[in-house]
Specification:
about 90 residues, alpha+beta, about 35% strand, globular
Length: about 90
Amino acid sequence: MRRGERGDCMYFVAAGELEIRGRPESISYGPGDFFGEVALLTGEPRNATIMTVRPCTLLRLDIVDFRQLLGRQPELARIIHAAAEGRRQPVTA
């Protein structure tokens, strides 16, 4: 996933390790983490580039299923919205 791309899905990390680039500090994601939700919630392009550090298994949730899931699972919607709000900070090149 690259910064500036159109967001049509989000991902959940089932295994492996990823690193987020384009932030002031390096952020690592591993099993149980998710990413890509900001673009789905805002309609804006991706705000960071994600690179694998170790081989990964990712679960992909497309935008249609994302919207349906959030409508059926208010607690999950709250968690995803809170994470997205924390990630909507200025990015670096």
